[in-house]
């Protein structure tokens, strides 16, 4: 069965909870053992003291280690990306930081794709660097040859443990070729004993429109605050991949204690029941908005996956690895910051707020808001100008979205 058919029932039996059709919130810190022998057995498995016997399932002990809401949520999330294992966190940043920390030790090197989410960029360039991790940025417009020669020049090749990218990139919708990154990992095997792990932040397209594990990624990460949550009412994060690759991430999560709470997991379970229908509607609306913007005299350029102005190489990557263009649009308005702000201040239906992926449409100004911390040179390199607006398109009636854009541009 398809994931959207299983989202309402998978991993939960109503007869466990008085016949309740929906999985209740297990708002409990600890779980009662039937016998002391059972408690001993649960701990043996939880602490990896022995392997499970055939048919033996790890029991519930304490909600920092596991909780039915976290477990059922993780099982359901696996279905979308066809992953073996998932780990859910109380924020996207905690999923990202825990993943990086569990694979990188002082003296190791990380290759990361620029631009990445501001919080990720800060964590890499401030925290990881401060504990002695060496970092090397690459960007989507570089060829494999340019990247490999930069790595050779840096003398870091034998230390690389992870390659971390985000695609599409925020806010320009530039796509990183995941297959190229996979070739890069193969190249690095000439220098290291083990293949560096490839981690992809897939927040922008979600599992509905891009499945990085199928294109060579080892780990896929989400800020579940965005499309997975989809209602602007929770903060959460997820990492998915092979069981063996998730083991050390889950181990570190147990000790950092940044697992998702039962309440947030329950909200997220509610949300992913409608993930596909929401994302498809948002994309359908966004495609109409893109066509409208392309024909508007006050719009200089539109940034959206798969359209002509992104360039032919980008279109090839789009065809290879994306199942759809999603619902994030950026555009340059005629003029500069003044005109951009006038437009933003005139919006009525579309809210002026950062974040993305929710069922209501949002607009913001990357240059002075989400990307204000990005150095001026990098802003230039990535076309983040004072005239750029970023839209996250929601599920409203598209005519109302277009009418709002029309009246806000009419100054
Ligand atoms: C929002 C976001 C994050 C951070 O997630 P939080 O849930 O806010 O911690 C990471 N990556 C991307 C692409 C994001 O948009």
UniProtKB/TrEMBL annotation:
Record-level GO cellular component terms: cytoplasm
PROSITE patterns registered for this protein in UniProt: CYS_MET_METAB_PP
GO molecular function: carbon-sulfur lyase activity; pyridoxal phosphate binding
Matches recorded under CDD domains: CGS_like
Gene3D superfamilies reported in the protein's UniProt record: Aspartate Aminotransferase, domain 1, Type I PLP-dependent aspartate aminotransferase-like (Major domain)
Keyword Methyltransferase attached: no
InterPro entries cross-referenced by the UniProt entry: Cys/Met-Metab_PyrdxlP-dep_enz, Cys_met_metab_PP, PyrdxlP-dep_Trfase, PyrdxlP-dep_Trfase_major, PyrdxlP-dep_Trfase_small
Keywords: Lyase, Pyridoxal phosphate
GO biological-process terms attached to the record: methionine biosynthetic process; transsulfuration
Pfam families with a match to the protein in the record: Cys_Met_Meta_PP (PF01053)
Cofactor: pyridoxal 5'-phosphate
Similarity comment: family membership: Belongs to the trans-sulfuration enzymes family.
PANTHER family named among the record's database cross-references: METHIONINE GAMMA-LYASE, TRANS-SULFURATION ENZYME FAMILY MEMBER
This protein's name: Methionine-gamma-lyase
Organism: Schleiferia thermophila
Lineage of the organism: Bacteria, Pseudomonadati, Bacteroidota, Flavobacteriia, Flavobacteriales
